[in-house]
Amino acid sequence: MDRKKRSPTKYWKEINGNLYARLQYEDESGKTKNKYRKITDKRKAAQAVAAMRRELDLHGEEIFNAEKLTFGELLEKYTSTELVQATYQSGVKIGGRRSLGAAKSTVKPLKEYFGNKRVQSIKPADIKNYKNIRLNTPVSTEVNVRTKVLNEESGRIKTVVTKGIRTRERAIATVNRELEMLRAIFNYAIMNEWLTKNPFMLLKGVISKAAEVERDRVLSFEEERRLLEACVDRKSHLRALLICALDTAMRRGEIFKMRWRDVNLAAGEIGIPQTNTKTETARTVGLTERLAKELDTIWRSSSKNWNDLVFGVTNTIKTAFGSACDDAGIRDFRFHDCRHTATTRMIASGSSHTEVMKITGHTQLKTFLRYLNITPETTRRVAVKLDTFLDANQGGVTTPSNHLHYRIRTFR
Fold first, then answer.
1. Average pLDDT value for the chain
2. Does residue 269 contact residue 285 with C-beta atoms inside 8 Å?
């Protein structure tokens, strides 16, 4: 008796005029399910089914359920679990982030651009396009425009403040931070098996740190004098803050969070707890004589509560600082540049790199060197030392190179 010939396995199905590869599988409860994926050719059906089978074996059914997951929905999941306030145990951070403001600002443009896209449909080309659009979109900021107007009746000049818009190029560093956040979100999706591959794996050089413009603004002593002189009246509270930043290289957040229990005027030290530091490592900085005097003055007029903030800053000093810089005629200077200035001065004063790194809280030499500027005084000191070395080793013999060096020094 002839057996009926078994028909070959059919890997495709036509639905409403469209071709789909079909995978049949059993879920955890033993129920048979069908998974369809659109194809253009029946001959590619078996290949598509094999790919779906591999995804199922590697990541489970969750990978199929996530096919309709939009980036906006993924971002909500990421925000609710990853962008949360830091929690501490015995003074050690065990989860979350100390500062959420910058992270939440970073995800806004990502949501605007990718929000409605399905996560699994986002390709490397989409990321490149996002980068180009962001770099070509200038930053617009509302600013106060001060205009001096003569009052004809009183003969006095008054300052009229109006609102204006200032635009500037978007910094490459800003876009890099956004792309780093995007990459982290994709990795989060992979960890939860909602995505099989991070599209950044196929992109090389899209996050280019070398292209970032590193700030090298250092405050001169003359500029410092004018800036401190501008810290009067409603801006008088800035004086001690600025001296602290310029003499300790402490970060803005470390200064704002400093409490009297962290200050030891007798020992001439400030202890920065690990809960306040960026690297989560406690450190100690010394007090200069002028900073000690400023802190002593503030302490004498305070409520003498060891748990109080030293400077009483709870939000920002951006407006007052900008006004002080304007009054002092100082341009292109940010509060964080005080850290840059302090680091450069510490090295220039003769302290070793390793000692200064311990004071500033840098853990990587590469990062530390970004804060180190070569001043004209430094270059001259190095040249003098080289002259001394050459004279000692060449026995006073004038070589052609020596002669040229002498002429350069003579005619400058």
1. 83
2. yes
